[in-house]
């Protein structure tokens, strides 16, 4: 008998747009939650038009990140639409939203008023700067969050301009992950106490929380970490090097023992002498010299040989993969990190697999992102028991 998925039976309303809060819905849906994506009847979610377009009218980004969600249309600003929404809230466990703070309140749909209908309701609220503070009402996207949260300041070469840490919407995805963690904890509380709550996340907070020891180091010593390219301030060598054929690799030496093993792999055991680079402090003081030694060695080695030498010496290393490299890698294949599906609208798709891997109750991919309003009639019938005539009347009024 197949065990039910971890989130089976949990009902989630996703009224958010674009990526941050909706990604929390994607994670919950991957693991069995019933996630109902609610979009404006005419406008839809802008994520449908973000990214590479496909023949079905929606982008690859939508097909991937709206997967496993049922889709219905509903105008929350329409009186009849708001009434239907409240009835859906009564049957739901979680609400996901990422409007500017105050928007739901302006529509008469504040979390507190919704909990008068459903006291156990958990509301994930993702915004640029969170629900409080002097910047609470300002707009923002991941690019702004990366800068405000301190991540972009650290990304790039020491003498260059700050760069985007990977050309992805990192803060959006991270906020979705943090949001999922918050929702799971809040659901646990709701099960125990019968009381829901808000999960409040500012996009910038999702990256700021990941900046190593920068906050305590500045508070204690006034240290401002600067851009270091591929380096980190606390250990050496720990970065990226180019091989003989022009490939890039990452090598990570986080201790004196690992550096000693790297020195052996390079045939340079003299580097670990007490008066050379035996200790982390010595290597940090001679950062450019140590990095140069590793660079000279890597430049003489094809990547396959370099990797074999590092593996034999138990030195952590790995290729700097492009997406083409990822598709060809046997580890990726063995882990099932790429899912190939045949979608009824878009044809063959390859999507990133859900994370994490649960051995007893794994995630499933039931379908890619659906068409706008694909499940409106079914949801209104199944959840609220509305007859086709009632649904037609709602559609005629513009509420759905």
Automatic annotation (TrEMBL):
The keyword Metal-binding does not apply. SUPFAM superfamilies: CoA-transferase family III (CaiB/BaiF) (SSF89796). Keywords: Transferase. InterPro entries: CoA-transferase_III, CoA-Trfase_fam_III, CoA-Trfase_III_dom3_sf, CoA-Trfase_III_dom_1_sf. It comes from Dankookia rubra. This is CoA transferase. GO terms for molecular function: transferase activity. The keyword Transferase applies.
């Amino acid at each position: 008998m197949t065990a039910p998925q971890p989130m089976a039976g949990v009902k989630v309303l996703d009224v958010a747009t674009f990526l941050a809060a909706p990604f929390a819905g994607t994670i919950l849906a991957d693991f069995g939650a019933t996630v109902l994506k609610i979009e404006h009847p005419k406008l839809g979610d802008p994520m449908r038009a973000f990214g590479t377009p496909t023949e079905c009218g929606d982008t690859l980004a939508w097909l991937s990140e709206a997967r496993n969600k049922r889709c219905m249309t509903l105008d929350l600003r329409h009186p009849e639409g708001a009434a239907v929404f409240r009835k859906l809230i009564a049957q739901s466990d979680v609400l996901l939203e990422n409007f500017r703070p105050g928007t739901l309140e302006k529509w008469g749909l504040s979390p507190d008023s919704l909990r008068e209908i459903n006291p156990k309701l958990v509301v994930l609220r993702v915004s640029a700067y969170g629900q409080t503070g002097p910047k609470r009402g300002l707009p923002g996207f991941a690019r702004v969050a990366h800068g405000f949260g301190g991540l972009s300041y650290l990304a790039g070469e020491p003498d260059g301009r700050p760069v985007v840490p990977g050309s992805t919407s990192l803060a959006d995805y991270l906020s979705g992950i943090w949001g999922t963690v918050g929702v799971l904890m809040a659901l646990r509380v709701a099960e125990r106490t019968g009381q829901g709550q808000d999960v409040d996340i500012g996009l910038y907070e999702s990256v700021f929380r990941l900046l190593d020891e920068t906050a305590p180091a500045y508070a204690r010593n006034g240290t401002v970490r600067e851009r270091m390219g591929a380096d980190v301030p606390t250990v050496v060598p720990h970065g990226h090097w180019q091989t003989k054929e022009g490939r890039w690799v990452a090598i990570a030496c986080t201790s004196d023992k690992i550096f000693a093993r790297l020195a052996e792999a390079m045939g340079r055991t003299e580097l670990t002498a007490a008066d050379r680079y035996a200790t982390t402090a010595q290597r940090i003081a001679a950062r450019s010299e140590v990095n140069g030694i590793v660079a000279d060695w890597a430049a003489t080695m094809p990547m396959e040989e370099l990797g074999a030498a590092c593996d034999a010496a138990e030195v952590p290393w790995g290729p700097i993969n492009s997406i083409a490299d990822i598709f060809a890698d046997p580890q990726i294949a063995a882990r099932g990190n790429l899912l190939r599906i045949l979608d009824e609208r878009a044809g063959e798709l390859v999507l990133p697999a859900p994370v994490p891997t649960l051995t007893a109750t794994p995630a499933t991919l039931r379908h890619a992102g659906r068409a706008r309003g694909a499940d409106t009639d079914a949801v209104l019938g199944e959840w609220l028991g509305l007859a086709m005539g009632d649904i037609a009347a709602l559609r005629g009024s513009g509420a759905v």
